[in-house]
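Case study 2.
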Amino acid sequence: MHRNARYVRGVGLLEMVVGVALLTTIFVGLFGLLQLGTRLATDSKTRTSALALAQERVEYIRSLPYNSIGTVGGNPSGSLATTETITLNNTTYTRTTYIVYIDDPKDGSGAADSNGKPNDYKRIKVTVSWTGPRGIIRDTYIITDITPLGIET
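Prediction:
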């Protein structure tokens, strides 16, 4: 037997347990970071798609003649659907269009309107909602105003 053999030792059980615990802690942290990054990327992609759907609807409405801008059964009345369901990138979105007349107080309101036209312009709000992680309903929206040509001086 070698003379210094009693000083040459392998890894003990306690050192092995501590090493495995440290490595496990590090890997669990890295896995959590990876999960968070994936979730943020997915949420960003979903929100961007929702904004694109809202913007698409607003641009379509802007291309219509002013008198045609309205929703089925709404005031103002028109041919636009109030609610639509759209599937994009394996996510189901609900797109809702709200259109209302606005009486601008700059020319008077109601009966005191200087040009006699209380419906000065239309305000459009397009909301897109979807079910996010853990069943949470998420939404985003765009609001814009559309004014007819020549009605206000």
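The chain has one domain: 12-146.
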